[in-house]
Amino acid sequence: QEYTNTETQNPGTVSRPDRGSTEAFPRSYCHKAQESLLSSASGYRNYRGILNWCVVMLVLSNARLFLENLLRYGILVDPIQVISLFLNDPYSWPAACLLIASNVFVLVALYTERQLSKGSFSECFGLVVHVINLATMLTFPAAVVLLVPSMTPVGGAVALGTYTILFLKLYSYKDVNLWCRELSTIKVKKLVRSLSCPLPQLSQGDEHKVCYPGNLTIRGTPTQLLLVSADMYYFVSAPTLCYELNFPRSPSVRMSFLLRRLFEMLFFTQLLVGLIQQVRSHYDMDLSRMTERLLRLAVPNHLLWLMFFYWFFHSSMNFTAELLCFGDRQFYRDWWNSESVTYFWQNWNIPVHKWCLRHFYKPLLRRGFGKMASQSAVFLLSAFFHEYLVSVPLRMFRLWAFTGMMAQLPLAWFVGRFLRGNYGNAAVWMSIIIGQPVAVLMYVHDYYVINYRQETD
Amino acid sequence: QEYTNTETQNPGTVSRPDRGSTEAFPRSYCHKAQESLLSSASGYRNYRGILNWCVVMLVLSNARLFLENLLRYGILVDPIQVISLFLNDPYSWPAACLLIASNVFVLVALYTERQLSKGSFSECFGLVVHVINLATMLTFPAAVVLLVPSMTPVGGAVALGTYTILFLKLYSYKDVNLWCRELSTIKVKKLVRSLSCPLPQLSQGDEHKVCYPGNLTIRGTPTQLLLVSADMYYFVSAPTLCYELNFPRSPSVRMSFLLRRLFEMLFFTQLLVGLIQQVRSHYDMDLSRMTERLLRLAVPNHLLWLMFFYWFFHSSMNFTAELLCFGDRQFYRDWWNSESVTYFWQNWNIPVHKWCLRHFYKPLLRRGFGKMASQSAVFLLSAFFHEYLVSVPLRMFRLWAFTGMMAQLPLAWFVGRFLRGNYGNAAVWMSIIIGQPVAVLMYVHDYYVINYRQETD
């Protein structure tokens, strides 16, 4: 009985009551009751290696393609060439002109807030200026994209995307400054300080904290406007959509981290351009037998999206953040494990999710709307912007993107109602892999019919 | 200062000192310093979703192929057809005859151990019988495979594989019974009981525990031989290579688990057969430009191996274990995360690893060999069996498999010396993805040159 107890306490070792005679004999048993790791009953979750496997497979599958593209096109990001082209003939770069013009809207928002903080503008007049400014940010670039013939769909999409991001940022800027003023008028000074100078874990740098209206008016310095603009432009270039008076900062720029992200950015740019060319040729050929080829296009289309995700949300945003010492690197959460459609939409794009929550969903709740109504309103807003960013650059209004986003609501209900765990996860993956290429195929089909078939018909 | 403390303790909630006036205002900050999940600095490891993604991608990529194969070949595992073919013409099924003949060796081992336990055989004579029995198990099927012309390479490989597994099992059977006898002769009766009736967590069933020589001689029952054979055949069919008098048992057969594993077995059989046909046609065509096509073949070859791994080590072994109520389901550990070659070889095939450790590596250590020498000896043994299982069915001795296994030793040194973490993991994946098809290609090339090129030359 004694030995049995010893075994219980130390199942991994052999009990040796009689060292000289028994040490030579190994334990005659070597099994214990346990589940396989891949069985869901095991509760095992560490698959970091699978991620590395995906990367290795990606590199190997595309090694040849990558080398060919590198040799044919060189390193695509060539800033000198871009600048020289732009300086030679500015009118052939309407998208770039639009991007430069966007500074006007930033400066209008900053000027308005400065006047509001000084009291030169009334709250009501300030709001009107902001609304006009924001409305112009959506309509002006759309009008330019639709009316200027030399605008390409890619250029238009980039310009509209940038304006949309700026729109969300300036909306947040307006909101936060308004909240700070409202708090100071109701004289909760202490709370103001705790709200506008938060994050006690960074308290060693508290002397550098900015309190409202310090972000708009820095008194006693001759370089006042420069510093105020610096605060504004830090926010404009930071990888977030939500304004804050004091962003958490990382202590320094890690050179090796920066270089790795830069390498990834260049590598995935090559890969994306190479793959898009290949996939595009497939789209070109297969217009006649679309539904038949859908499955074949779904996989490369999905891989493109995954690579775009990594390139944009990990490499590029971390690169920018590292450069700006921006501390909050949560640009995505573990959407790959999402077991419901809602979880996916809440976790794959954190900057937009944060903005929606802070400046749209919660304000709606505070105004008395229900949870379901507010959530549907968020999807409606998202559907509008999806449609806006696709329809305007392609110059055709088909509502496929809008419908696709709105279709997420019944899909979310269905998955949440009937599927759980790994099955729910698989359903989310299926909806991503199949849903996207269907929408893309719709637009590509219509675009080709409008732009190319007319001539042959 | 008070609010700052509250924030520290509850960073996720807003402190509300003045409920009526401040509840309407959201926190004006929403960022905190943190790393992205995919950065290795985050320490995040939960990628279960990626595994589901791989499965979904696999199913989608092969959905068409799978359906075609199902329609063309039907469900491949058709036991009635197999049996009827075998009964009609036994000589055209030499592999099946070999499999049936293997029972002789099992019964010889059982008989020898029974005589040894009764004292009818001396230890020395018993050892001689065992050695002859085991040696015949390796040479007899090899001779049959080499000499019978109607033996196909696949049939030969299956027969030799089964004999090799049986060889390892009977070697373990001999060892464990020997250890039990040695322990009882040195009169450590209590230890014997703790060694041959272990696993106190199953103590509620202790009355059913078998103690040596109860596994060989069950006295007082008329069905003695039947029960003894049942113990032996349970071990022969159980998914393990290491004998134990009392295996841990699962409480019951879970029907849904069994059906899911069965479905997986059938599904992967279809997929494997379909893919092998596709890959084989590639191998056929590309003999002229081999090195050029290596990269292209590496990926499907690797996918085949991965599917085989899942089919054999997860679906089939769990199916068998569930059917036999065999409790220990650890057939593999997390080799996908392995950051060194050694870790991979220790974790991808646990039954063989356990056997090598228990019946080869540790006995060598006890005889005074060094760690390095013993480890090299394990790789040498493994290399021998790899070569044996490939060369004999193909009837050509090229030592590629042997060299491939022995090349793991310098590779393990190199990876362990120079690469760490995710880089080590990527290197292990690369060696699996690239190394295997090189060896396969070598054999395929030589096989085609010998069997087909002769005629055309």
TrEMBL record, chains A, B:
Membrane topology per record: Multi-pass membrane protein
Intracellular or extracellular location(s): Endoplasmic reticulum membrane
Any one biological process term the GO annotation gives: triglyceride biosynthetic process
Primary localisation category: endoplasmic reticulum
Stored InterPro entries: MBOAT_fam, Oat_ACAT_DAG_ARE
Chain segments carrying region Disordered: 1-23
Catalytic residue positions: 386
Recorded superkingdom: Eukaryota
Keywords linked to the UniProt accession: Acyltransferase, Endoplasmic reticulum, Membrane, Transferase, Transmembrane, Transmembrane helix
Biased composition (Polar residues): 1-13
GO molecular function, one term: diacylglycerol O-acyltransferase activity
Membrane-spanning parts: 50-71, 91-112, 124-148, 154-171, 262-279, 294-313, 368-385, 397-415, 427-445
GO CC annotation terms, alphabetical: endoplasmic reticulum membrane
Presence of the UniProt keyword Transmembrane in the record: yes
Similarity remark: Belongs to the membrane-bound acyltransferase family. Sterol o-acyltransferase subfamily.
Protein name: O-acyltransferase
